[in-house]
Design a protein that fits this description.
- By secondary structure, this protein is of the alpha+beta class.
- Helices cover about 40% and strands about 15% of the residues.
- Strands 2-3-1-9-8-10 form a six-stranded antiparallel beta sheet, with helices on one face.
Length: about 575
């Protein structure tokens, strides 16, 4: 995992500064290359090969240039398929460079990867930017006076884009309406992002985008579920995602998805270093905030993992607060950002370099009650109706502004970004899940993992988000993924792993991975936390359960927004 950066002009000073701002993305080295038309930069976190053998920008067999952030998980299968590829480095960067030279953009269809890459064709004087099918790896870009700039993070672009300190009205309206912003426009006006599965080609001489290609994992719903095949596909996905030479850590939440991933990793590697959050102090509330940790401990003990419990305390929450705002780059509704940031730091302190998590399982396997409710209700009749339904995904999102653009404009932009190629008229719920896979998952979960993992020089991997496994699951109809009872979700995983995983995992009620900061504040369990909150928000906390819920769902996100605007000098 690395960081990539570029500008379509000769400007090594700017790229070196960009690299320095994002040095956490690559502690194993950095490098810059330029000619009169373009400057490319890279910092390296070496996973597959020795750092000396994987220096980028990489010169391809045809003399083109590549900077690449990611992993090709079917690397060994492709090496075997293409015996004319001569491997000199043991690194997937070399394979990607060879494939792009030989096959062009069609080679992207063959790789099962997480990636953000930039490929400069010297002869054509074009720059290709590409992001993986699920949006696991970020890639941002902006059109400026010099032409095009791009990078793995936003922070190095802000001073280069004159409008970036102003909120983009379309993006801020969309996030205020739905809780996330899956559009090309970021909240920083003038800075865009590649969408999941998107590849663009930029003509450097004429300063314009001349081609656009998309890869979708489609909800075909055309294959019957087979438990043995399901387990085999999951095992292969985990095995592919465990390639490399560095120490792996698993985010073991205690839920089904992270548990099956940990179980299959134990089979593939013979060792699992698992990490679980434990809330301390606990609180009396409707939700048992340590039920996840308890279930995870049962599995870790049964299968013999090297298990670490990460204590989430008010002090840890405060200590990680500023870093959680800065590294995330964008505001979020989630009050647990600080906990996620702290947990990643603990993994890095335990010498973890590659993290593995169970994200994407809910979206491909009917893990949320909303899918079950939609399946049993009147379903949308076309893609447009589904998008209207999706726009109502959150009841009370954080309002970044009260001056929102109307829904018809937001729907048009959403349709422009996500076409009806994801529509399956025979299975509208699968279509909704497929849309969530490229909107909700990268914007809410994968981006958070990338920002906080790379802040501590760790590469995040997601076996359930691999292209092959996603397609396997989205080939299975929704009707086979749900049980007969209410909230009987994730049925396939329960069937496939019954009598394999502990009952505490199989039968566990779904809970969120959250920190009870509202209850801590209302019950005055930590004076430092109360003082920290009062200083930031200028208000005391009421002594009621209702108030504690309001703090968690409303006031903490507002606090995040306030600090984000301050740190990034947003007008």
């Amino acid at each position: 995992m690395c960081g990539i950066y570029g500008i379509t002009s000769r400007d090594s000073t700017y790229i070196l500064d960009f690299i320095d701002k994002c040095s956490h993305r690559g502690p194993d080295g950095s490098n810059v290359w330029h000619n009169e038309n373009i400057t490319l930069g890279h910092n390296l976190l070496s996973i597959m090969g020795e750092p000396g053998n994987t220096t980028q920008p990489w010169t391809t067999p045809n003399g083109n240039k590549l900077v690449y952030n990611g992993e090709i998980f079917n690397y060994y299968e492709l090496k075997e398929k293409y015996n004319d590829f001569k491997d000199t480095s043991g690194c997937d960067t070399e394979l990607l460079a060879w494939g792009l030279d030989k096959f062009g953009l069609s080679f992207i269809d063959e790789i099962d990867s997480m990636h953000g890459f930039a490929y400069y064709d010297v002869g054509k004087n074009t720059l290709t930017l590409s992001r993986d099918h699920a949006g696991i790896k970020p890639l941002y870009y902006a059109e400026v006076t010099e032409g095009l700039i791009f990078g793995s993070e936003i922070k190095g672009m802000l001073d280069k884009v004159p409008t970036s300190r102003t909120l983009n009205k379309l993006a801020v309206s969309f996030q205020s309406r739905t809780g996330i912003n899956p559009l090309r426009q970021t909240l920083f006006d003038g800075i865009k992002k590649l969408l999941p599965g998107e590849t663009i080609v930029y003509d450097i001489e004429n300063k314009k985008i001349i081609d656009n290609k998309r890869i979708y994992v489609r909800p075909n719903s055309n294959t019957s579920f087979n438990a043995e095949e399901f387990r085999n596909q999951l095992y292969q996905a985990v095995k592919r995602c465990s390639i490399g030479q560095r120490k792996i850590g698993v985010f073991l939440s205690g839920g089904l998805d992270s548990s099956v991933v940990a179980h299959e990793l134990m089979k593939a590697r013979g060792v699992v270093n698992s990490f679980t959050n434990r809330i301390n102090p606990t609180v009396e509330a409707d939700e048992d905030y340590n039920s996840d940790a308890d279930a995870a401990k049962v599995l870790a003990t049964k299968e013999g993992y090297n298990h670490t419990e990460v204590n989430i305390t008010p002090d840890a929450f405060i200590d990680a607060w500023n870093d959680s705002i800065y590294f995330m780059e964008l505001p979020t509704n989630n009050p647990s950002m600080s906990m996620y940031c702290h947990t990643n730091k603990v993994l890095a302190q335990n010498k973890i370099v590659v993290t593995i998590a169970g994200d994407m399982g809910d979206e491909i396997l009917c893990g949320y009650p909303k899918y079950e409710k939609m399946f049993r209700a009147a379903k949308p009749n076309n893609w447009g109706e589904l998008l209207k339904l999706w726009l109502k995904r959150m009841k009370r999102p954080l309002q970044l502004t009260e001056d929102l653009l109307p829904d018809n404009i937001l729907l048009k932009e959403l349709a422009d970004c996500y076409s009806d190629e994801l529509w399956n008229p025979g299975d509208p719920v699968a279509s909704y899940m497929a849309l969530d896979c490229v909107t909700q998952v990268p914007e809410e979960f994968l981006s958070r993992n990338d920002k906080y993992g790379m802040a501590y020089s760790m590469e995040g991997r997601f076996p359930l988000a691999s292209k092959i496994f996603m397609q396997h699951c989205l080939n299975i109809p929704t009707s086979q993924k749900l049980g007969a009872g209410e909230n009987d979700t994730k049925l396939l995983t329960k069937i496939a792993y019954k009598n394999i995983l502990p009952d505490e995992i199989i039968n566990k009620k779904k809970t969120g991975w959250t920190v009870p900061v509202g209850y801590w504040l209302v019950n005055k369990l930590n004076k430092r936390l109360n003082d920290f909150y009062k200083s930031a928000m200028g208000t005391d906390i009421l002594d009621t359960v209702k108030a504690s819920q309001k703090v968690g769902k409303t006031l903490i996100p507002r606090w995040i927004l306030k600090d984000w605007k301050t740190k990034y000098k947003i007008k």
